[in-house]
Design a protein that fits this description.
alpha+beta, monooxygenase, 24% helix, oxidoreductase, Alpha-Beta Plaits, monooxygenase activity, ABM_dom, Antibiotic biosynthesis monooxygenase
C-alpha cells in the first residue's frame, strides 16, 4: 500500500472552518481507482495543524489522481485561508505492516 501524508499549519485562525470543510467534503476522491481511505487529523498540541493521510493500493494510482484531480479536490477550501509560510509538506510512505 502507498500512503501520502500532507501537512500544513493554518496562519489566520481559520482552523474551525478548515476542519468543517473536511468533515463536509464532497468525497470526490472516494471512487478514484486505487483509493482506499482518507484520514484527517489535528494534533491536540497544535490545533492549527492539519494532517491529511490518503491510502492507495499503489503509487501510480495516487499519481494519476493527483495529476488529474488536484484542482477540483481543493475547490472546498475556505475563502481567505492563509497558511504559515513553508508549512505545507507532502511525504510518501510504503505501508509495511498493521
Amino acid at each position: 500500500m502507498f500512503i501520502a501524508l500532507s501537512t500544513f499549519t493554518i496562519a489566520n485562525n481559520m482552523a474551525p472552518e478548515v476542519k468543517k470543510a473536511f468533515q463536509e467534503r464532497p468525497h470526490l476522491v472516494d471512487n478514484a481507482p486505487g483509493y482506499r481511505k482518507m484520514e484527517v487529523l489535528c494534533p491536540q498540541d497544535a490545533p492549527n495543524e492539519i494532517w491529511l493521510i490518503t491510502y492507495w493500493t499503489d503509487e501510480e494510482s495516487y499519481q494519476v489522481w493527483h495529476k488529474n484531480h488536484l484542482r477540483e479536490s481543493h475547490s472546498n477550501i475556505p475563502k481567505g485561508l492563509k497558511l504559515v509560510p513553508r508549512s505545507a509538506k507532502v511525504r510518501f510512505f510504503t505501508h509495511i505492516a498493521d
